Structures are given as C-alpha cells and as structure tokens.
Amino acid sequence: MTTTVKTEQSNNHYWHSCKPLLWLIALGAMALTPTLYAAELPTSTPVPGGVAVIALKLSGAPTPQVRYRQRQVMVRAGKKGWYAVVGIPLSAKTGSHKLQVSQGEVRYPISFSVRAKSYEEQHITIKDKRKVNPNKLDMTRITRERKQIRAAFRAWSKPLDTEQSHSLNFELPVSGRLSSPFGLRRFFNEQARKPHSGLDIAAAKGTPIRAPAAGRVVETGHFFFNGNSVFIDHGHGLITMYCHMDSIGVKVGQELAPGESIGTIGNTGRATGPHLHWSVSLNDARVDPALFLSRQQRNQLSNSLNTKTN
C-alpha cells in the first residue's frame, strides 16, 4: 500500500512538473496552424502582372511548399487554411497555369487560370541617346548590373520577427502624383522596350521616400538605367525596388520598420524629371504595387494620374 501511494504521488508530481512544458508544446502547435496568424491577403487578380491568391485546401503544420515556374512561392495563413500568394509575370500567357504543392508526404498539382489584361502604350522622348541605345562600354556595365538586380529580386528569406512583418498591406512610399501606371507598353524615342514594371510617382526633388512595410535592405547602388536604387526584402520572395533616387539613406543588411526613411526623390538614371519608380516583385515576377495598397490609397493614386510622364 505504501508503495502504491508513493507511485501515485510521484505520478502527480511528474504530471504537474510537465504541465508548463506541455502547454508550451501545445502553444507551439497552435502557432503553426493557419488560423492563429491569419493575414489579410492582397487582392487576387490573376492577370499578367497580377497576383493570384489560391486556396491550397490544407491546414495544420508544416507550412506547405509551393512552386510556380520553378520558383518558390509565398504561402500565407488565411481564415480557412493555407493560401499561395503567386506573382504572375507580365510575360505570362493567358490560360491554364500550374502550381506544385507539397506538405510532408503529400504532393499534388493545382491549376489556375490567367485571364487577359490590356495595357496602354506610352511614348517617351529621351534626350540622352545613350539611355536608349547604350554603347559597348555601357552594355558591359548594364550586363554586370543586371546580375546584381536579378540576385536582389530572387532573394528568399523569412520575414523579420515582428508583428508588422506579417502584414501584406503596404503604405505608399512617397506622397506625390501618379505619373505612369504599371504595365504600360513603352516606347523610348519610338523604339519598343520592355513594359513598365512599376509605378512612377512624381514629387519634388528631396521628398522623403519611406519603407512601405517592414523589411531588410538587400541591395543598394547606382545603376545605369535605374540610377540610385534601394531593394528591400520583405520575406518569402516579396521584394520592393526604389529607383531614380537623389540620395540613399540606408545600408545593405539594415532592418527597417514601416514608414522609416530610405532616401529622397531624385532624377538619376534614365529619367526626365524627379520621381520615384516603385516596383514590387513576388517570386521574381514584377507585379502591380497597387494590389498591395488599401482601396483608399489606390483611389488616391488613380485620381492623381496625369498624362504627363517621367
């Protein structure tokens, strides 16, 4: 009888001593479920240059892995499970596209449709002819810089460990007038060039540019076409780029809070006046930055649109 009592006491003591550990394990499991960190997702717009938000019909741990066009894709928790947040390049063809999804031992494809979108033309006159038809020495520099830019856009990291870093809601990086919307089919001196892969926001030289969300600086520099530029990694393949800056106020590796200054408006590189070229890249696809803004801010930009371009 004495032995039995000691065993029960020991078991009770063991159970009570383990309670804190068991609670930690339970909380850890809860943290891995989608509902706990459910985030507001960007507007789903499955068009070239858009973002497709696709329900994976999965829940629980571990976080699913998704690939699109051989690139890893952002996966975020929603109210009803996991969602893939897919950047669609401007070059994408309309029709059926496919994701490869895996979670543990489960692997399967998901198909989604990309619908057509028509973008307007834009004709710009550039006085510096080398900015339209670079010489051989310029091309050597441009080739080198393209590698830097490609590496920055292909960065993949975890978001900063802050509550703000989990948000996909951006703030406008600068106050100004929308001078060139996203996706325009561009002609420089009547020569066709790649579509406009960002938003141009015109403002006075020296106007502060601010981080639209939490992130880490992954690249800065002075580039032939883009001028003074900054790249911010917001985690999971979401990268933002800021071009034609007058001054750069951050360094590579620096962690930024939303609204923190990164530099000022300028007209360096291929530009006809002071403005910010702001690009958003998701899984190495340039997408419309407006999709990450609130409806109020989208309307604000739309109302400011002027036919004059930079």
User: How confident is the prediction overall: mean pLDDT?
Assistant: 84
Number of strands: 20
CATH topology of the largest domain: Glucose Permease (Domain IIA)
User: Hey, roughly how much beta strand do the residues contain?
Assistant: 25-35%
Number of domains: 2
Q: What structural class do helix, strand and pairing data support?
A: alpha+beta
CATH architecture of the largest domain: Distorted Sandwich
CATH superfamily of the largest domain: Glucose Permease (Domain IIA)
CATH class of the largest domain: Mainly Beta
Oligomer: single chain
What is the approximate shape? globular
Structure description:
By secondary structure, the protein is an alpha+beta fold. It is 19% helix and 35% strand. The chain has three helices and 20 strands. The strands form four sheets. Strands 9, 12, 13, 14, 15, 16, 17, 18, 19 and 20 form a ten-stranded antiparallel sheet that branches. Strands 3-2-6-7 form a four-stranded antiparallel sheet, with no helix packed on it. Mean pLDDT is 84; it is low at 1-38.
